[in-house]
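Q: Could you predict the 3D structure of Coagulation factor 5/8 type domain-containing protein?
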Amino acid sequence: MELHTSILILFHTLLISHVSGTDVLKSDTVSLTTSGFNSLIIFNIGILANGDIMYYSNTAGSKDTLVASNGSYIGGSPLSDKVRSFKSGNNTGIDRVEISMNSQHVKDLMSSPGPGNSTTLYQNFEALKMAWNLDAVNNDDESIYDVDSTVAFARMLGGIGYKYTIAPYTNTAFWVSVKTKINSGLDSPLLDRVYLQCYDGGAGNDPKSWQSSLGMKVVPLVWVTNDSKPSQGTTAAQAKSRFAGWNKGAALAGGGYWNDYDIERMKSSYAAYGDVLMNVFP
Ligand SMILES: *[C@@H]1O[C@H](CO)[C@@H](O)[C@H](O)[C@H]1NC(C)=O
Ligand SMILES: *[C@@H]1O[C@H](CO)[C@@H](O)[C@H](O)[C@H]1NC(C)=O
Ligand SMILES: *[C@@H]1O[C@H](CO)[C@@H](O)[C@H](O)[C@H]1NC(C)=O
Ligand SMILES: CC(=O)N[C@H]1CO[C@H](CO)[C@@H](O)[C@@H]1O
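A: Sure. Here are the predicted structure tokens for Coagulation factor 5/8 type domain-containing protein:
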């Protein structure tokens, strides 16, 4: 309790998804920056075999966009202006923007050419950070789980100036190992946030038990009302009761939602979901 009121790391998180309908150029970005959320994660960035970076979209009217190639940002200014506006726009409450990716090609690229600052991969991430004014890279690995390359990649990103976060739903042992190695010997942790999936495959997750395994506080995520898997949907009122219950059992670092697309598709209220976080994590 004391931790919460004294240090205000009570960030709220909203995952921006365009998995099946919304990309950041199409989201209601006025609502999502002014509804009480203070962190945004842009979902579905990917690394190609040559180290280039893609922003994936399945959105009608949108296309996959190569955003960094050969060490330069090439995603265009409408996209960079939009992403930068999350933190700089009128009345925005957002002070942190992250990109989320899986671990595709990370192992190969860490093995050759490695994490050095003269590589295309390094320079692409450096260029993307600058163009989008990014704060962190989120690892949403759900299949590869290679400890050494994950740690090398995180350290590379830390060298560029990113913070590093994870979004586990399972495989606690992998994430404990990664967290311990990445933060080992650092005064200020590079891996500074854990967004724990508490829906779908992670529906049974107990934030308290993950906190105890990882030795750090986590931010549980619930899935907003959704018509593709209604049983996983969580109304604002239900989210409030879940976050409050978990937070009572063991103080959390905050709370968050997957995902904005469903809020808009279901005509739910950003403000209602944001209010829950401001209420439970003041
Ligand atoms: C990549 O960038 C380097 C340095 O700017 C340049 O010399 C080279 O031609 C570029 N390669 C491609 C394939 O664009
Ligand atoms: C901020 O408000 C001004 C005045 O209404 C408007 O011209 C500008 O486009 C807005 N900026 C953003 C990023 O929304
Ligand atoms: C790149 O890495 C080398 C070797 O670690 C280091 O000496 C050099 O200062 C780095 N350069 C930049 C621009 O960070
Ligand atoms: C309407 C819909 O399909 N919404 C999304 C619900 O969430 C799942 C998983 O995150 C997405 O795949 C769906 O697109």
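Q: Anything worth pointing out?
A: Residues 85, 89-90 surround 2-acetamido-2-deoxy-beta-D-glucopyranose (ligand 2) (CB under 6 Å).
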